[in-house]
Amino acid sequence: MADLFAPIVDGKVVDTSSASSKENKEKKANDSLDKDAFLQLLVAEMQYQDPLEPTTNTEYISQFATFSQLEATQNVELSNKISMANDLVGKQVIMKSKNDTTGLMEYEDGKVDYAYLENGKVFLSVNGNLHNIDDLDSVIENEYLDAVNLGKMMQTVVGKLPSAASITLADEDKVVQARELYDSLTDYQKKYVPKEALTKLDEVGNAIAALKKSAQPDDE
């Protein structure tokens, strides 16, 4: 039975699909021994022990203590992952996954809509896709998002300007506004303005200055 912590729409819990078939079919290798495997080994040891040299009660108690410690550690890890998942809801993240065909690492960024717990695994819903929280690459800060969006806006504004070769004095106001927009950005935000956009802005600015100079009457 899966535990779901997800948004409620119209008074009903959102019906989400279970984790991807890839997650369900694929069992990831684990360097540490999980509690189920530990119990299976313990039962097998009891079943096939040498009757002439049986394992002592002390040894069983020691092994059980090891199992209890392992289970407690796993419970703490799961609790931490659930807490982390709840904290990530509403935030922008980057998730990573390996492409089965190419073997290359792929990245997907988006907002975490909700978290999902199933079979002891914690998943994050990003762009409608469920990702294991272990595949979290990084959390995107708001300052970074703002800078990226402003960089894209600058690229759009400058892209609508005529080229330096076809610019006229009638376009001066647009060029001035684009320059003022760029100058209003912080040094951090300016780093995300594409170089080609800034180059074009400089070129059309110089072209406007040249046109204004040539339009001035000679003093002679």
Distance between the termini: 92 Å
> Low-confidence parts lasting 5 or more residues at pLDDT below 50?
7-13, 18-32
Helix content, binned percent: 40-55%
Order of helices and strands: EEEHHHEEEEEHHHH
Oligomer: single chain
Biggest β-sheet, characterized? 6 strands, antiparallel
| Number of helical elements | 7
Number of strands: 8
Q: What's the mean pLDDT score? A: 78
User: What would you report as the Rg, rounded to the nearest angstrom?
Assistant: 30 Å
Strand content: 15-25%
Helix vs. strand class:
alpha+beta
The dominant shape is rod-shaped
Verbal overview:
With 220 residues, this protein is α+β, with helices and mostly antiparallel strands. It contains 7 helices and 8 strands, in the order βββαααβββββαααα. The strands form 2 sheets. Strands 1, 4, 5, 6, 7 and 8 form a 6-stranded antiparallel beta sheet that branches. Strands 2-3 form a two-stranded antiparallel ribbon. Helix 2 (35-47) runs antiparallel to helix 3 (57-88) and helix 4 crosses helix 7 (195-215).
